[in-house]
Amino acid sequence: MSVLLALPVLLPLVCAATAMLFWRRLRVQRTIAVLTALGHLASTLALFVEVRRFGILVARFGDWPAPYGIVFVADTFSGLMLVTTSIVTLAVTVYSLSSIDADRESFGFFPLVCALLMGVSGAFLTGDIFNLYVWFEVLLIASFVLMALGGERKQLEGALKYVTLNLVSSSIFLAGLGLLYGSMGTLNLAQLSVRVAEATDPGFVTMLAMFFLLAFGIKAALFPLYGWLPSSYHTPPTAVSALFAGLLTKVGVYALIRTFTLVFTNDPTFTHRAVLLGMATVTILAGSLGAIVQRDLRRALSFTIVASVGFAVLGLAVSGGASQELATLALAGTIAYVIQAMVVKTQVFLLSGIVRRLSGSFDVARIGGLYASAPGVAILFLLGALALAGVPPLPSFIPKVAVLRAAFGEGLGVYAGVALLGSLLMLGAVARLWSHAFWRAPMERPHESDDDAPVNLVFRFIPVTGLTVVLVLLGVGAGPVFQVATEAARQLLDTDGYVRAVLGGAR
Amino acid sequence: MRSIILSTVARAMLPILIMFSLFLLWRGHNEPGGGFTGGLVAAAGVILFSLAYSPRAARRVVRVDLKTLTGFGLLMAAGSGTVAVFAGKPFLTGVWWKLAGPQGSTIELGTPFFFDLGVYLVVIGVTLSILFSKAEEEERP
Q: Predicted ipTM?
């Protein structure tokens, strides 16, 4: 059974290594990548089923007992994140079959995607905070290369900002780890949870928490640390930015949720209610306002990522120090929100690639009249855009309502009001994008695209349609989804349960 | 500019360094050494050779494709961890075999050794890839 926890990491590793053996045979590499993505989905689904059946699962690598060796821990939350990661990666891999040029492929595009998948899966599974750092590095290094691969001028400019800020984040993370290990004497998350709760100097612990908040805040793209995201995500090929949009910031959000529910919970009035709450609300506003003013489709969509990160963290912030019932509600909202956001972000980014292919531009002022020429794309994009804004039948509505209800229940009406305003602005932003690109009279076609080779668009439509179906299913099945998210939230709040599962009797 | 002293020494040192790296790899399980150090020493031998002659000559000495080497090393490291799974133990647990050695001795061979061997290959592959790509960049006018 413990091998199920290793598979999400092991499969992409084997994929990357095998693809290196077939360096010049791109067709083999493609096949390996698609098979790996399928295998990853199967393994994470199996893991999710096991977690639902048996509760928190723990794998001790090398058979070393918990506080000493590295453990992987799968609870409902990480299971949900893993399954969604698989779905996103599968879609992007299929999409890239027809959209990534041979140059990039021959420089190892597919092995890099596998390495990224390995890093993300490891980060979702690990029960050791230093190991979390290692997985962050794995996924960052893969993403650095993916971001710069191809070496176009604007790409390198974006990559420079991306790499610099992420390196800063890694150094802060590492410095925090040093202080944490020096003061608590352990890096195992479960043991940290126990020791931090017993710490005699709460001020010091809060300072430590700020180190991790900064580090994860940069990765998650929280205000005022989000600058790198909109200035880099629109530069690489669409498949790459869709993969980043779906996965990377969400790993930061995951790390925030994990550490700020399990470890740093001793002073929620400051860490959650002051810092996180403030950052989250301003992030929502900043993201929505940014999305309204951008002309470049992908830049505008990048700002919607920022806004959605704000919403996800809002729930986490509200849950800190709240009553059990409202904390569960807020966290469940956060979890359900993050899951659907991963799917939506990937879907709209992939669609932006199709839009560019059809219209020759990413500039919304130049695209126009696509509804007449490609009604299918218009409807798919409309669904994605409405999901970004959180319109009722789509899956982001219920989670938002849950978070806002919890916020009102806790007397944080002002923040909830700002979040609502942000939602409204977001609706305006996506409505503007959609009506400009699809609804307006067609413009004369500016052909600035270098992506004109006659390709089979089927490989681009299959994954986008698939993601849209997942999206609609998440919306139709909002009840059961929210039920699972609620259970995941209960598990997160029951830190004793986590500690017992990992450490057993030994503390 | 080629120095006759350097090239003679490099030619003599290459096999010695390779043997030393294998020795480090072998003793690495219980004493200082291991796949990482061993790999670095082996790569250092090739780097010395490439300084004395040329990166192209060094590439000829290596013979195998470096990406194949790296990929094979990764697979070996991952595979050595998987052996434990088939033995019913958690991933990466050491599994040991006792083999009959010469003159009635026994040799203990375990999966950690193959893990180390994988690391050894990966380190050689990656280090030399970096070296060759840098050196060939300089060679171009």
A: 0.84
